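Below is how a single chain appears once it has passed through the pipeline. First comes the sequence as given, then the structure the pipeline wrote out for it. We keep one example in the README because the format questions we get most often are answered faster by looking than by reading.
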Amino acid sequence: MSQEKFPMRIRYEYKEAPDAKPQYAHGVWGGINAQGEVEINFYTECDKLPPFSERIVAPDGSFGHEMAPYDENMKIVTRHIFSRIIVNYHTARDIMEWLEDKIQVLDLESEGAPYPYEGGEPDPEQ
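Resulting structure:
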């Protein structure tokens, strides 16, 4: 019976796309698609801009105050989707576990506990 020899460890090296940049997210929206994958849409929010604004011009050429059409009974917020990610079940679970680990570290930091890893870096085995 032949026994396969597996490597002692695997190294993952990271290459960053030239246009990769940090993005800030106010939230996430998504769900399960027809293929059973998780769709994640990260967004930022801002107040909706009016479709136009106007200023009255006086006979002497001076400007009056700026006016824009607003519905005082409704506030509209625009969500700008900047990243759409689709992951399978296993990757979704990995993301969930990774986030839980990071949140646990943040919880410890907010309680005044020292950073739980030596050298300021997490143990890759955890």
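The first strand starts at residue 27 and ends at 32.

See the next section for the split statistics.
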